[in-house]
Structure formats: C-alpha cells, structure tokens
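New to this. Please check this fold:
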Amino acid sequence: MKNSLCLCLSTINKLPLAKKIARHLIRKKIAACVNIVPKVISIYEWDDEICEDTEFLLLIKTLPANVKKLQREIKNLHPYEVPEFVVFKSAEVAPAYFNWAKKNTRFSR
C-alpha cells in the first residue's frame, strides 16, 4: 500500500518511562507520533497467576519500514521481560497526515 502507516501498541507501568520511550522514538525519527493513554487496566496471566495492573498504553505511529527497528528499540528500552508489541497496518491514511508522518520519520535499519 502506497500511503500506509503502522500503529504499534505497547504498555508500560510508569508514566516517566512511557515519556522517555516516546521521546526517544521521536528524537530518533523512528516514530512520527506517540500517544500515551493513561491508566488502562491490564488483566493477564503471568507465571501461572492472574494479574491485574494499571498501565499506560503507547500508541505509536510509524512507517512500515521502521517496524523492526521500533521493535528492537522497545525491547532495549522496556523494563518488562516480555514487552507488549502489537502492530496494525493501516487500511487508509489521510494524505496530509501520511505526508506529515513521512516527513517526521526516516527509515533506519
């Protein structure tokens, strides 16, 4: 798809860490934008226990060519043993938004 973006999701337990990761991704031009959604409740199983935590959801917008680099950066910066990393590829992106996102990211291996 010519004008496609990827929306990548990740959660983290502390707002300062969420901001640190977001700023790093923007500074390195790996992502065009990161939204931080506060206080999502995550319920999951870990080590045979049902856990419930309040986390911050990162909504990360990037070019498809940057997804692998983004995943490596999340893994390196994230404190979790298994950080969430889920990617959705866009079906459609407004041309003006796509052009802005493309201008503010660059492909990096």
